[in-house]
Fold this protein.
Amino acid sequence: MILKTIKKIISEQLGIDEKIISLTSNLTTDLDADSLDAVEIIMAIEDEYSIEIPDERIEDLLTIRDLVEYIESATQA
């Protein structure tokens, strides 16, 4: 479910087909997101899941898998 939501957010933000987004996709090298795109994607994810991703942690979230794993850990109560 998290993967599907992240793929939807990224596809809408970057104007790309969800089918080309996989767990191993890198936001910048594979999906051509620039720094502004990345910030907007992170903000959309934070809004979607009601979480806050610390700035120092954002630079470690390079792949879709990194995002999914972070959200899974951040949303477990």
